[in-house]
Amino acid sequence: MLSFKLSPEQESLRSLAREFVRREIKPVAALYDRTGEVPWPVFKKAYETGLMNMQVPEEFGGGGQGVLNGCLVAEELAAGCAGISASVVLNDLACTPIVLGGTAEQKERWLKSVCGDMSFVAFCVTEPGAGSDVAALSTTARREGDHYVLNGGKQFITNASIADYFVVFASTDKQKSYRGISAFVLERNTSGLSVGKKEDKMGQRASDTASVSLDNVRVTADCRLGGEGDGFRLIMRTFDKSRPGVAAAAVGLARAAMEYALEYARTREQFGVPIIQHQAISFLLADMQKDIDAARLLTWRAAWLTDTGERNSGEAAMAKAFAADVAMRVTTDAVQIFGGYGYSREYPVEKLMRDAKILQIYEGTAQIQRLLIAKTFYG
Ligand SMILES: Cc1cc2nc3c(=O)[nH]c(=O)nc-3n(C[C@H](O)[C@H](O)[C@H](O)COP(=O)(O)OP(=O)(O)OC[C@H]3O[C@@H](n4cnc5c(N)ncnc54)[C@H](O)[C@@H]3O)c2cc1C
């Protein structure tokens, strides 16, 4: 049977997140956007409220929730501030390779620690020379007896400045291209690991982004997740689980922009009537309503598929690509509805437009999602 109705538990999870946003995020979203500082008090409260590490299994201290429930929370958090939401939600993304590829002992060792005392984890794939083309990564992990020695550099890593753990993807065999990529978990204080300067970004400024350097980082072989060469598959399986969450964040961000635009259109008068009575404006709002709804439905389906154990790569790519485009279009139109005031930092919608842009870039650009969709559905 097909149902679009949330269960009472899902409704209360969504209400919990919505109330958290009203109390803890909305009042400070503009402040952290302006300063670019790490919103530690908000993170601490999100952790205490159970809104962090939601998808880590309960036995390791996480919330034990599925991807769909994670999406319900991501939509709410991003409606409050997409930057704060990104840092909170990406902790789940960074834990996913450990959940999917870790041994019982590795999960016990890292996930329990992450969930036990609000630690951040960084997911390190992108490099200066390898963005969309993940298989081209040049960071190496050379086997030396019972150890690996890692060398290279990672770029644009979310939460890098504040992370205690780094899930790093490196090549253990360059000849094998993507089949030679392996995954490692590194602890922050490991000698040779250093974090670069924080990026000064256009949007999502409350979310930390920085580079990571690996200079002869020596770790024991039990820091490797899965077998040698399992890394690329782990990255792709992680994206299948995390892309619905990015799509949900796009839905939340777009919804916030639509709500501001609707309220403004009802009160702002030009030519003697509220501007919502000009059909050109009401049609912009109607398009927002329809596109946000469509994006949410694609998102829920992609999440539901992976929760039921089915492949969702194509559906997750469609949800992520569509929702990110919707967020960009809706926020741009919200600025349009606000007219000149929309362009001013005194009004909330310009932040939403800046925050939306990165949704079309990270976790696979708009173009890469389309490549994936074509590959999945047309071979
Ligand atoms: C704020 C922020 C946070 C991030 N967080 C993380 C993180 O936590 N971990 C992580 O590993 N990475 C992270 N990233 C990196 C992000 O995933 C990459 O920026 C993204 O994958 C694109 O890579 P690139 O920037 O090198 O662009 P490129 O790959 O160089 O792409 C440039 C342009 O070319 C297009 N393009 C490339 N190849 C093709 C193709 N085959 N066909 C058509 N068009 C193509 C792209 O779509 C894009 O428009 C983050 C980035 C930012 C800005």
Task: Explain the overall architecture.
The protein has 379 residues and is of the alpha+beta class. The chain has 11 helices and 10 strands. It has helices spanning 8-25, 29-35, 40-49, 67-80, 82-101, 104-116, 231-267, 279-307, 313-338, 349-357, 366-378, and strands at residues 120-124, 140-144, 147-158, 163-171, 181-187, 193-198, 209-220, 224-225, 269-270, 273-274. The chain has a 4-stranded mixed beta sheet, with helices on one face. It has a 4-stranded antiparallel beta sheet with strand order 2-3-7-6, covered by helices on one side. Helix 7 runs antiparallel to helix 8 (279-307) and helix 9 runs antiparallel to helix 11 (366-378). The longest helix is centred in the middle third of the chain and has 37 residues, at 231-267. The chain is globular and about 80 Å long. The mean pLDDT is 97. Flavin-adenine dinucleotide (FAD) binds at residues 123-126, 131-132, 156-158, 201, 204, 209, 358, 361-363, 365, 367-368, 371.
**Biggest sheet character:** 4 strands, mixed
**Which word captures the global form?**
globular
Number of helices: 11
Spell out the helices and strands N to C.
HHHHHHEEEEEEEEHEEHHHH
Q: What spatial order of strands do you see in the largest sheet? A: 1-4-5-8
